[in-house]
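#struct-pred
JK: can someone run the complex with thiamine diphosphate? inputs below
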Amino acid sequence: MNMAAKITSPATHDEMANAIRALAMDAVEKANSGHPGMPMGMADVATVLFTRFLKFDPAAPHWPDRDRFVLSAGHGSMLLYAVLHLTGYGLTIEDIQNFRQFGSKTPGHPEYGHTAGVEVTTGPLGQGLAMSVGMALAERMLAARYGADIIDHYTYVMAGDGCLMEGISHEAIALAGHLKLNKLIVFWDNNGITIDGKVELADSVDQVARFEAAGWAASHIDGHDPEAIAKAIEAAQKSDKPVLIACKTTIGFGAPTKAGTAGVHGAALGAEELAGAKKALGWNAAPFVIPEHIASAWAEAGSRGTGTRTAWETRHASLPADIAKRYSADFSGAITQAVTESIDAFKKAATDSGAAQASRASSQKILDHLAKAQPNLLGGSADLTHSNLTHAAGTENVTASNFNGSYIHYGIREFGMAAAMNGIAAHGGFIPYGGTFLVFSDYSRPAIRLAALMGIRVIHVLTHDSIGLGEDGPTHQPVEHLAALRAIPNLLVFRPGDAIETAEVWELALNRMAGPSALALSRQNLPVSRKTHTSENLSAKGGYLLREPAKPRDVTLIATGSELTLAVQAADKLAAEGIEAAVVSVPCFELFAEQTADYRALVLGTAPRVGIEAAIRQSWELVLRPEDPFIGMSSFGASAPAADLYKHFGITVDAILADVKSCLGRAA
Ligand SMILES: Cc1ncc(C[n+]2csc(CCOP(=O)(O)OP(=O)(O)O)c2C)c(N)n1
Ligand SMILES: [Mg+2]
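RT: done, structure tokens with the ligand placed:
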């Protein structure tokens, strides 16, 4: 029996909201670091939402049909931590007292996977809002697949002026409006203040008009009036469009001299101001103490959803066996046996045929199989579908009137796509992949970084991966991008060298639950480099010996992607001249780095090494020693046919031969 539900709370709305304010003030004061202003300003909205509307159960923080709450204004983390503490997510008062300390459950900004109740990592402004679009989209798509009995929840967001000023907000709200994601409800903390001072210093956008223009319903309310907040939420829940509720608030509400100023945005109040604020709010308890009747009212709010959750569990338990099986497969994120089989079959067929093929084209053919083998695969592209070759055969588009589809035209919104994919992955139920040109990974980079930080499975299909794309020229030719992506911790950057490796890296990316992957794929055709089929995924070790000469090696040629072919051709020519060259393929530096030193030494050997990649040398220190030559790029590319560019920039078999000979002290 639920005891808490029996307590008739004598606590008022103000007392409950002030509990959030007091905890935020005390925690920031103790840490002498943090942001009290936002939690104090949005405490009323949070109180109304969590005590009267949000569908949640702290006892089951991963309940798939819970409402999602995203604190896009992540600097206001103490608002979330206060609510998680008060509603019973297991955050203790000691956790609150350890705010921002090493190893605490209450880091500076909310971190996904670290604190129960934190749905996504936020702090880089605007990305929470953009991820919430992915969450709301995932909800609609799952509702279409499983029905409202199983999936039917809202996604609520708190966004600040900063979130709305960031460019990403434009992409996010346009996508949400277009897809009519009517279960997405955004509270804008319209406090008129950012770090530098008043918003009007830098911005004069009519946000309500902007959201309306993007297909949202939007309205202004007093963000300190609980009834106005409740009415706005009730109306929003019935909307047929996504909803913006512009909440006029006072930052640092209650602080006697600093409320309404930038001074309360991101610094401890100081003893005097803090005492004055508590006095003004009528808060008499000692620091970090919540009076009993207020604590129990919050606990009651925290157990409000138990019955709803258990009723859902009953409905879920009565799903027909086949649907239940599919549902748990979707949510577990497991990869089917059919994927493994289709990858193997593809590899065998590619080896047998030996036909040259662009790796983007191989990827397309693999996806045609994968879409059938792995039904929760969710594709898309930022308006480069026919270049990225991301549309799997037989998949329908996701539209506002068909959420049963599994392909999303994200529009020309690389960052919005990447952030939405993060939200989809964090929501659960799908494995999102999305395409753009490798060069435009710069546009999606902040979201790729956040996926890596969160440790979520998102797959970026990045085609046109070098000067090999040719005529589009240096604006479209990635040069530093592989290195820049390899610099992101916990991101796997794959650059497969032929059709077989392309299949293998897809398999690796799909099976990687703990982080994102980037697949760098060629526009130009690549010959098949392997002569015999093996079911073993040779790319899994990141790098491997493609060719080992019968006699001891004189040199090791190391290459990735399209340049693997050059290495193989060079090895043939060297053999004809009596020079024994091993060829090492390194489709993934990060996985190669994870191998034992013995394995790497075996693969790389002790002979001179030559590295070949049509990109900058940075990141090659993993496999090259300072004295080893590198054949690649050190400038931007140019507009010309690919073959001319390779020649012009000296990425040729002849250049490899010359470097090898100079290493070996022989005349060229
Ligand atoms: C992308 C990004 N740029 C800059 C920052 C640094 N920053 C944190 S909060 C903030 C001001 C945000 O203003 P607002 O959203 O209005 O928050 P408020 O001051 O009202 O709490 C800035 C610039 C950030 N976190 N993310
Ligand atoms: Mg603000």
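RT: quick notes.
The first strand starts at residue 68 and ends at 71.
Residues 1-7 have pLDDT under 50 and may be disordered.
JK: thanks, will look after standup
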